[in-house]
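Supplementary Text 2. Reproducibility record for the structural model of the 150-residue chain.

All settings were left at their defaults, and a single model was retained for analysis rather than an ensemble. We include the record here because the model underlies the residue-level annotations in Supplementary Table 4.
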Amino acid sequence: MKESASKKVNMLALENQFCFALYSASHALTKAYKPLLDTLGLTYPQYLVMLVLWEQDDVLVKDIGNALFLDSGTLTPLLKRLEANGLLLRHRNIADERQVRITLTPAGKNLRKPALRVPEAVLCASGQSEQTLVNLRSQLFNLRSELLKP
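Retained model, structure tokens:
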């Protein structure tokens, strides 16, 4: 019996796992963000919330959750901490008391300007071209869409 010319791939080897490549790259990216976000007084999840609010202020908690793929149990402590830090306000929706609206404070709005340096710094740290990262982001969004299909 002849031995196959190609080696058999160990499908359970950690180095062959797509999920691990994605996880470890995400972990490395979060580490790259940390010193940048420390200067803003934000954690990475708080930064994501602020990105949503800098794009559109005065939104419902559920809309932030939908944008970030987070449930209210995960999101509420983030929002409470950002409120305690003076960056946003939480208040009941007048039209529906069950809903909570989030608005930026002046300090939250003013944090946007120094945050503008973050994406460029991360691009430089990545060692990749802007186009490479744009393409990768698009591929990851497509992957997420496929994985979330019912």
